Amino acid sequence: MAAPHRIDVHHHILPPRWVQEAGDNRIGPLLVSGKTPVWNPALSVEVMDKHGIEKSVTSMSCPGLWFNDVQQTLDLTRHCNEYAGQMRSDFKGRFGVFAALPLPNIDGSLREIEYAMDVLKADGFGLMTNYEGKYPGDAAFAPVFDELNRRKAVVFFHPNTSPCSTCLGEIPSATLEFPFDTTRAVTSLLYSGTLARCPDIKFIFSHAGGAVPFLAERISRLTARPDFKAKVPNGVIPEFQKLFYDTALSANSYAFKSLLELVKVSQVLFGSDYPFAPEPTTTATVEGLQKLGLSAADLQAIERDNALRLLPGLK
Prior knowledge:
By secondary structure, the chain is an alpha/beta fold. It has 14 helices and eight strands. Helix content is 44%, strand content 12%. The longest helix is centred in the N-terminal third of the chain and has 21 residues, at 70-90.
């Protein structure tokens, strides 16, 4: 059995109440398997032990918590955050918490930031790449990101389905739409000016940043327009290089070579995407990283040290 040293920043929970309220008809079709994962906290620990994962930071996944009812979302968000906090207490030393927010409700989200940081002592926040087609750079979300910036928070983004995703409907969203929606979210934060305005937020993006490394130069060309250039006074590529990216579904030479052309190893974090990606995917991530020709120091940084530097509460 592998020595427990890895820190997993992309590890999901499925509180039973959330599964019931979201419904299999919303969760299953997003995934390659077509089914809602079978999960409980003990299964997470079992997989972590098997793959040398000392700690996992938990978060909610797609389809998120917004089902067109404000009070339902407020109540369900608090329930899921407290569920994650209870898991952390029940399995001491094994879990951290990326708290959810009840977006697109702004006032509720500001209250939940206060509760998560001051009462729950969350390690950061887990957000979706869009909420009902509103991307994170939308002006309506500015108060939320300003408060997260004031708190110097860590913000982990997980992709969501998008209302504009009407093509190839037979292909599960996890295959194509998730990396593309991550790219939309990053571009939204960039050209809304949010990345420049909120320099104290530490952003993590799933799946090696989706298509961002491949499209980085193409996205940067928009600065030829003065209105776009004004939003990125530090430059596009430097903003991308400040972000963090996880290894989930990306520990292969195709994705990794592109990512490491854009950023230093210091910006890469181990992520499994368990259980939305089943255990064989965790195996593939662990084994894939070992086959990339990384030095021992770089592998240690990706699997552990970078996460501890970013999330000191996990020490």
